[in-house]
Amino acid sequence: MTATQFSVVFTIALALSTLAKLWLARRHLAHIAAHRGSVPDAFGAKVTLADHQKAAAYTSAKTRFAMLGTLFDAALLLAFTLGGGIQTISELCNVWFSSTLVQGTATLVAVLLLSSLLEAPFNWYRTFVIEARYGFNKMTLKLYFLDALKGLLIGAILGLPLLVGVLWLMERMGSYWWLYVWGVWVGFNLLILFIYPAFIAPLFNKFTPLQDDTVKARINALLAKCGFTSSGLFVMDGSKRSAHGNAYFTGFGKTKRIVFFDTLLERLSINEVEAVLAHELGHFKHRHVIKRIAATFAMSLVFLWSLALLMQNGWFYQGLGVTSQSTAVALLLFFMVLPVFSFLLSPVMSAYSRKHEFEADAYAATQTAAQDLVSALVKLYQDNAATLTPDPLYSKFYDSHPPAAARITQLQAQQGN
Description:
Elements: H1 3-34, H2 49-80, H3 85-96, H4 100-133, H5 141-172, H6 177-200, E1 207-209, H7 213-226, E2 233-236, E3 247-250, E4 257-261, H8 262-267, H9 270-285, H10 288-310, H11 314-318, H12 327-342, H13 346-367, H14 370-383, H15 392-398, H16 404-416
Helix pairs in contact: 1-2, 1-15, 2-4, 3-4, 4-5, 4-12, 5-6, 6-10, 7-9, 9-13, 9-14, 13-16, 14-16
C-alpha cells in the first residue's frame, strides 16, 4: 500500500464512521420523540408522564450535544494527522530535546494535553449546562477545577513512568517489543485495580463505613449467602458532584469493597438496596470482571502486535500526515486512528456487556425477590432520567446495559417461574 492509498482509506473510514454516528444519533432522537407522548405499557403504573418526558428531553439534549462532539472529534483528528499537527509538535520536540526517549515522551504528552485542553469546553458545558439544566449537577467550579488538577497530577505520577517505560521497551527490545510492552501493560492495570479503592478513589470522594446496622446486617447476610468477602461496606458522597445514584464493587482480591452512592441509599428501600447489591454480586459470581479483564488484555495484545507490523511501513506514517518516523509517533498515530477502524465492533462489545447484565439480573432474582430489583431499576431510571424508549439500533452500538423494558420483562418472567 502507498501513503496516498492509506490516506484515502483513512479519510473514507473517518467519514463513514462519523456519518454513521450522526445517523444513529438522529435515529435515536426520532425514536425518542415518536414515543415521548406516552409511557410504555410496562411502566404505565410506575412512571409518570412528566418523568418520562423529562427523560426524553434529557436524553435528547445529551444526544444532540454528542453529535457536536462527534464532528469536533473528527475535525481534531484530521488536524492532528493529515493537517500536520502531530508532525509540527514532533518537530518542535525534536528541536527542544536531544534524547529520542525524551523527544517521544514530550510529543505524546503535548498531544494529549492539547487534546484535553481543546475538549475541556465540551466537558464544562456538559456538566454546568446540560446536567445543571435537568437538576443533576451538584459540582461547584472550584471542585471541577480541583478534580481536573488532581486528575492531571495522578496521570503524571502514574502515567509518565509507564509511558517512558513503554517507549524504552519499544526502542530496546527488538522485534518482539510488543510482548514486553504487553506484560508491562497487564502488570500496570492489575496494580491500578489493587490501589484504586484505597488510594486513588479517596482523593476524589469521601468513603465512610456503612452506619445503618439494619442495612449492614441484611447486606452481610447476603454476602455470606453468596460467598463474597470484601474489605468493607462504604457509602460514597456522590451527591457532592451529581444527583445520579449508583452502587458498585471495586478492587481486586483482598482489596474488594462494596460502595453505595449516598443518593442511592436515600432513594431505595432496604429490599431494593439488597436487590441492587445482589445484581452486582451476580457479576462476581459469573466472573464477569475477570472475563472482561481477560478480554481487554487479549485485545491489547492483538493491538500491540498490529502496531508492531504497521510501524515498519513508511506509508503508515506518511499516509497520516507524518514524515518523521519514531516509536512514539507510531504509538500515538495507532491509538488515535484505531477507533475509526474499530467502530463497527461496537455492537459486539455492547452485546457482550448486555449479556453479562442479563446474567447478573438473573442471579439477583435467585437471591432476592425479582420484584424488588424491578422496583429499584424503575426508581434508578426515574432518578437518572434514563430514557425508556431508546432506538434499538442505537442501543446496540452504544448501550452497555439492556434497554429497561427488556430487563424488566426478563425479571418479571423469572418472578413468575
